[in-house]
Design a protein that fits this description.
The structure is a single chain. The protein is mainly beta. Among the domains are: 115 residues, Methylamine Dehydrogenase, Chain H, CATH 2.130.10.10; 66 residues, SH3 Domains (SH3 type barrels), CATH 2.30.30.40. It is built from one helix and 44 strands. A four-stranded antiparallel β-sheet has the order 1-36-35-34, with no helix packed on it. The longest helix is centred in the N-terminal third of the chain and has 13 residues. It starts with a helix and ends in a 19-residue tail after the last strand. The relative contact order is 0.13.
Length: 500
């Protein structure tokens, strides 16, 4: 089993068969829209693990994709902006430990920091030009006394902020490996430019730190705060706990607006930072950041609020209550809020496109719904589980099944991926356990399905393929259309298959 997965990984990196006819190399890809639900398909597979994948994530800028598996490996895959085809494994590192290993990206995503399997040490790797095989880290942080839970690059990527199980925030100089400063606290926030760090202490105060030196810029009397968040522009800092305050950091001495709230459950700023959204019980309230005045509200969430997502332009928002009901809201220029849509099905997650036109909502029945949120209308659905991820540029949907990740996207996506289909099926086709018809079929693929093959019989009559659900099986090659050069596939070490 191990040899087969390693072979598939090598094949994905080196073998790129002819693209199926529907794809047009040289054209710019575009983001997925609500009306594209019926125009999606599997574009490539990431097959580098031997055991189920239990962690997957696109990098914040969308240049890479990471996977962590029960086989104790952590892999980084190319997506874009690197000298490799999308889906190429940039590196696969050992000693991954589920629930312990954590990672962080530099601002330019040219470096990734990864904790060891025991969570006590940190290694930083070059992701632009990694060495072949298992690369050596370019920087190593000696083991600490406690397991690291979170990390973040700060100060133009010259320092690393880490948080451990002893509730200690430590700022590390990456050039020397030395500790610049250390504070105990219960929560932190990092400014968008990564130049300031807010640490909420156990005393309810909040320290503003210079992320380059670690020196305290200011100490904010945050009245029993337990949480903090910067607005996307870095002008405001919201703190909440016993009291909810919005701090204007543009002044030499920050001043605060005290909001007329009870104990809030959570808070987040709108995309441009003009409003702070807080939720208390069954109601979300919008507050003007500059004045602290209430602008609008989103009421009647059954059981309370579990999530709130703003559209990037700030004109729409989708909330989910604790019973799974989702609501689409319109927010006008004055902050007035009105409900546009109550989603017809209970939902578990939501993502909104960069151009603020499309929402994809997921639920546990494995179907994702695609909505035009400008019109407030359902446009279609696509089979995707609730833990599916969409890339930041909205061109890929990542779905995992066991040890395999499948990247889905527009069928006419022009990119050449590291592992491309060798063709598509002309007719519905049985998938067999062996290259013969003696044993029962294990699956049936519909006409039009893309075929990812990694070996063939000597006569090229049968292809050994990998399915997006991680199943491997054999199909008749004669059922392919738009086939690439099948002779380029390696020959399987098997006796000749019998003809039907």
């Amino acid at each position: 089993m191990k040899a087969r997965w390693l072979f598939v990984l090598l094949l994905a990196a080196l073998f790129t068969p002819t693209m199926i006819a529907a794809q047009s190399p040289g054209e710019d890809t575009r983001q997925i829209r609500a009306e594209d639900a019926s125009n999606l398909g599997v574009l490539t597979l990431l097959a580098g693990h031997e055991e189920p994948i239990i962690e997957k994530r696109f990098s914040p800028g969308g240049t890479a994709f990471v996977t962590g598996s029960l086989d104790s490996t952590f892999c980084v895959w190319h997506v874009k902006a690197r000298d490799a085809a999308p889906g190429t494994a940039l590196m696969c590192l050992p000693n991954y430990s589920a629930g312990v290993t954590t990672h962080a990206w530099s601002a330019e995503e040219d470096s990734i920091a990864i904790t060891s399997g025991d969570g006590l040490s940190i290694a930083i790797y070059d992701t632009l030009d990694p060495a072949e095989g298992t690369p050596e880290p370019k920087t190593e942080i000696p083991p600490g006394e406690a397991v690291y839970l979170q990390m973040a690059f700060v100060a133009e990527d010259t320092n690393l902020l880490v948080y451990d199980v002893f509730d200690t925030f430590t700022l590390i100089d990456l050039a020397t490996g030395e500790t610049l400063t250390s504070y105990e606290g219960i929560e932190h926030a990092i400014s968008p430019d990564r130049e300031q760090i807010a640490i909420v202490t156990f005393d309810g105060e909040t320290f503003l730190l210079d992320s380059t030196t670690g020196e305290i810029i200011d100490t904010l009397n945050t009245e029993g705060a337990t949480h903090a968040v910067f607005d996307p522009e870095g002008q405001y800092l919201a703190t909440w706990g016993e009291q909810t305050l919005i701090w204007d950091l543009s002044h030499d001495t920050p001043d605060a607006e005290d909001l007329d709230t009870d104990m809030v459950d959570n808070a987040t700023f709108s995309p441009a930072g003009q409003y702070l959204a807080t939720w208390e019980g069954d109601t979300i309230r919008l507050w003007e950041s500059d004045s602290g005045n209430e602008a609008g509200s989103m009421p009647e969430h059954d059981g309370g609020v579990s999530a709130l997502v703003f559209s990037p332009n700030g004109e729409r928002a989708i909330s989910i209550d604790t019973t799974g009901k989702g609501r689409l809201w319109d927010i006008d220029e004055a902050g007035n809020v009105s409900q546009l849509l109550l989603f017809r099905d209970n939902i578990d997650g939501v993502a909104i496109s960069p151009d603020s036109t499309t929402a994809i909502v997921t639920r546990l029945d494995f179907f994702a719904r695609f909505y035009d949120i400008e019109a407030g209308q359902l446009r279609g659905r696509y089979e995707a589980p609730a833990d599916s991820l969409i890339s930041p540029d909205w061109t890929l949907i990542a779905i995992n099944a066991g040890p395999v990740i499948s990247w889905h996207g527009l069928r006419d996506d022009p990119r050449e991926f590291a592992w491309m289909p060798v063709g598509e099926l002309e007719v519905a086709t049985n998938v067999r356990q062996t290259p013969s018809t003696e044993l029962a079929r294990i699956s049936v693929l519909p006409a039009g399905a893309p075929i990812f093959a990694f070996e063939r019989t000597a006569d090229s009559d049968w292809l050994h393929i990998l399915l997006p659900d991680s199943t491997a099986g054999w199909i008749f090659a004669t059922n392919l259309q738009n086939a690439g050069d099948l002779e380029a596939l390696p020959v399987a070490d098997l006796p000749p298959a019998e003809d039907e």
